[in-house]
């Protein structure tokens, strides 16, 4: 799917061409895009929100708030969500309002909050399209860097023949793919190996030594890298994240030895390794073949031996051009320890988080990180959802790859 991972916010305005928006949504979704729709009040006269909601699999936003419940539609959140904002159809009225910064409906307020590229597919009658006012408004949007998807020529709603009909959904789809398809993303062609989750070191067939890692951070990183075009493989321990509909390769393991072996089979073909797994430092020297019964002895001593250092082992095998990043979860002396690990393990960057920060570390949906890299840059970020943290890390990775 050529748009897998692409978030598209579709703005539908009040023209007869709005009926084509339903087919456009279906095409975008079938190519793997996540689609949300915002409609102007006038658009509802041409196509129902239920149709677009059903096809996009997301609620459709039309008003600033629900008059019955008082629930507010957050235009800022809507504007910050997409990778691209697409207006199709764009009427002469909304084109004029965009050019002049008017925000008298939810769609326009969302447009003024958007930080992503904007594409627009105008739809209007011949004389409206050729009017000097429309030309001036069009020039304003083009100067802002917005991309025009040129209208087609043919029979118009008025019965006239000429230019002004909205480009066909298939044409719009190809324009989106041309600019935002996976092959055009910053990590396109890169192979990335990510480790995630804990390792479990068996004491006997039912007991193990482990930790509280869930794998959320590693899987968020994998999704963010995939969204930027990378071919991603995740080697993971026993995680507590959903494994359905994952768009990248998964390799499941249990122990540190198994994780190292799996990574060694993949690492040499990869451009990047990000070691996000919380690997157990020690394992029992001997694993009992049967369940240890508590009545067999009053107390028990388990002798532990060190597990292999997966990150250090793979880093020692690094070839020219490979880039390696690790994680450091510390309870004290965080920056000092991160610098030591960066140098000792010959890493290109290390992500530091602290158990002392509320909302960071294991089993949270959030994390608070700092990134230290080989250029001696140390950047701290605020507490964020792990999906947003992953995007920060991947953007930093992209910067290192292009440095």
Give the SSE map.
Layout: E1 7-12, H1 20-30, E2 34-39, H2 49-56, E3 60-61, H3 75-80, E4 84-90, H4 92-100, H5 106-113, E5 118-122, H6 126-130, H7 132-143, E6 147-148, E7 152-155, E8 161-165, H8 169-180, E9 191-196, E10 201-202, E11 208-209, H9 216-227, E12 231-236, E13 249-252, H10 256-266, E14 272-275, E15 282-284, E16 304-306, H11 310-316, E17 323-330, H12 334-344, E18 349-354, E19 366-367, E20 369-373, E21 378-380, E22 384-385, H13 386-401
Parallel strand pairs: 1-2, 1-4, 2-3, 4-5, 5-6, 9-12, 9-14, 12-13, 14-17, 17-18
Antiparallel strand pairs: 7-8, 10-11, 15-16, 18-20, 19-22, 20-21
Compact summary:
With 403 residues, the chain is an alpha/beta fold.
């Amino acid at each position: 799917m050529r748009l897998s991972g692409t978030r598209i916010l579709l703005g539908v305005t009040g023209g007869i061409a709005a009926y084509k928006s339903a087919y456009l949504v279906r095409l975008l979704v079938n190519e793997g895009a996540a689609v949300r729709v915002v409609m102007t009040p006038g658009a509802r006269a041409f196509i129902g929100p239920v149709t677009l909601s059903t096809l996009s699999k997301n609620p459709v936003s039309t008003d600033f708030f629900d008059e019955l419940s008082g629930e507010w539609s957050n235009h800022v959140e809507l504007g910050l969500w997409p990778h691209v904002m697409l207006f199709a159809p764009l009427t002469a009225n909304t084109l004029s309002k965009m050019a002049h910064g008017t925000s008298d409906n939810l769609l326009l307020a969302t447009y003024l909050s958007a930080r992503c590229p904007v594409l627009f597919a105008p739809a209007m009658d011949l004389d409206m399209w050729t009017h000097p006012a429309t030309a001036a408004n069009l020039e304003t949007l083009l100067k802002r860097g917005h991309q025009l998807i040129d209208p087609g020529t043919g029979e118009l709603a008025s019965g006239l023949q000429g230019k002004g009909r909205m480009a066909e959904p298939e044409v719009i789809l190809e324009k989106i793919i041309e600019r935002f398809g996976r092959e055009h993303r910053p990590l396109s062609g890169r192979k990335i190996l990510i480790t995630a989750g804990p390792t479990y070191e068996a004491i006997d067939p039912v007991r193990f030594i482990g930790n509280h890692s869930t794998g959320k951070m590693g899987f968020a990183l994998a999704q963010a890298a995939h969204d930027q075009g990378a071919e991603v493989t995740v080697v993971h321990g026993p995680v507590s994240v959903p494994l359905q509909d994952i768009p990248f390769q998964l390799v499941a393991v249990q122990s540190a030895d198994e994780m190292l072996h799996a990574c060694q089979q993949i690492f040499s073909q990869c451009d990047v390794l990000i070691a996000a797994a919380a690997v157990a430092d020690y394992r029992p020297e001997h694993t009992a073949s049967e369940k240890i019964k508590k009545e067999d002895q009053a107390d028990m001593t388990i002798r532990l031996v060190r597990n292999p250092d997966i990150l250090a082992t793979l880093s020692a095998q690094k070839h020219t051009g490979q880039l390696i990043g690790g994680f450091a979860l510390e309870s004290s002396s965080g920056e000092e320890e991160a610098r030591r690990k960066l140098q000792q393990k010959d890493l290109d960057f290390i992500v530091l988080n602290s158990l002392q920060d509320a909302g960071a570390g294991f089993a949270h949906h959030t994390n608070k990180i700092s990134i230290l890299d080989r250029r001696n840059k140390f950047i701290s970020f605020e507490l964020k959802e792990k999906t947003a943290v992953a995007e920060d890390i991947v953007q930093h990775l992209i910067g290192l790859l292009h440095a």
